[in-house]
Amino acid sequence: MRPAFAVGLVFAGCCSNVIFLELLARKHPGCGNIVTFAQFLFIAVEGFLFEADLGRKPPAIPIRYYVIMVTMFFTVSVVNNYALNLNIAMPLHMIFRSGSLIANMILGIIILKKRYSIFKYTSIALVSVGIFICTFMSAKQVTSQSRLSENDGFQAFVWWLLGIGALTFALLMSARMGIFQETLYKQFGKHSKEALFYNHALPLPGFIFLASDIYDHAVLFNKSELYQVPGTGLTMPIMWFYLLMNVITQYVCIRGVFILTTECASLTVTLVVTLRKFVSLIFSILYFQNPFTLWHWLGTLFVFIGTLMYTEVWNNLGTTKSQPQKDDKKN
């Protein structure tokens, strides 16, 4: 029952989270910092109350390791959200972040000296081609949709290139953080809830450097039209409502993934998260009418099939947590 409940949380939380993020980004594309801050603050407060026991529970993993992990996690979160301000459409944002398998494999080979089967190399090639197709077609849209002067069109393309660079950096940094977490968990054991708390609590002072931008967007949020919250009779600026729902759904999403990691095999978790991304992408295209050509669909299909091939879902669909997983040739 718990795995089914967790899957429901992942799909309901993560998919609706993407919707509210896009609603925020469409109105104020540069709101990534205030969104990140609100998410971090909410999860940090919840963790301080229920995981850290008001600071009375000592961490199982030394703080110095969390400082390293937090530096990477904070950087990834801020850069990913800020990329939306650099001419990056939400569908491309989701597709590009689906390339985490590529980054994980590359860094796994370089750092952990892992070796993979030909089947997995083929799956990674499919994911790479899919992302390249979507990225290339999005680049053509950026230049063709700018009907201003040639200089303005070039400027829009340069900003888009910076956005792609930001997403690439965040992808590699996220993969490096995953490897760092893997080595920590092998040494100290798995403490996912604790890591979730410290990853969100320790970076909070870093938002001081973003305080001006956060304040500016808070003022903009205050000026948005009023919205009556259904069933409560309360009215509030609609942008604050979107942010509140984004934070809540982000928490639901993270909790669902946490339950899955404790109840299911990692293969199942990867499959559920991949399917969730695909559903979010389809909904974003249909509901928000984001430009999506036949080439984009082809690229998305390559990414989706490549990801399923990597997880070997057809051979291992019935794998349970107690069974050994046939993953890499060398772990």
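^ that was protein a. below is b, sequence first then the tokens
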Amino acid sequence: MSGELPPNINIKEPRWDQSTFVGRANHFFTVTDPRNILLTNEQLENARKVVHDYRQGIIPPGLTENELWRAKYIYDSAFHPDTGEKMILIGRMSAQVPMNMTITGCMMTFYRTTPAVLFWQWINQSFNAVVNYTNRSGDAPLTVNELGTAYISATTGAVATALGLNALTKHVSPLIGRFVPFAAVAAANCINIPLMRQRELKIGIPVTDENGNRLGESANAAKQAITQVVVSRILMAAPGMAIPPFIMNTLEKKAFLKRFPWMSAPIQVGLVGFCLVFATPLCCALFPQKSSMSVTSLEAELQAKIQETYPELRRVYFNKGL
């Protein structure tokens, strides 16, 4: 782009129209790009400076619109939208594909013994706990005690669910047995995500008007946000955990894997990774990041406060988390 960069580009919002699935998909393909985890601290801080300076009306000479959007997406990939904190590396959405393909591939390869199920489900739920904490909604800090309690209850409940499901399928066909990790992950997400974000359910998450003016905190908004995240996470895991079992069940009957059984895990990880490259951004895009709900669905006290101050307001907005 030639000429001076205009000062009124709205980089608080995504580059693409978030009212459409295609626009949200484009946004999340950029946010979840695994190459973002290779960026250095210097590159991240430079992106943050460009974004913060532009918001203050300071435009470096020669900065193009594409460079500005690139800086915005680097910034969004590493810094929390509500707190502005730099997020834990493995908790960032750009780490989802490499981390999940490795963990999921191993869960689906080593599922036959109880110790293996216990170990990989614990690894998976520990990783999920980090992701759920990192991508929480709101800016209220968690205390060490709250975080520890949430982690222990979430991982214990999820691992117990996985072991219970594994015990129920001891006498079914190997193909059915391969789907146990997916069933366990789906059930565990329903436990892990609400428990790691339980503070939001207790005290609520910030809700704003369309222009970002904070109106208060709502637990009802938190319930909607967490429900949407649980649904998208389960669907995100589905292709990578539902398609490879059929392929692996066929491959393990072939001479190649009988001759090289050690290739089973890398092939499984690769298949899962291929599915996740597409499933991660597409499932994140199922619901808008800036979610909304009717004022009439809020708590009575907050409704009254909003109607007194903004009588014409019909919808409120909030960051649902990821």
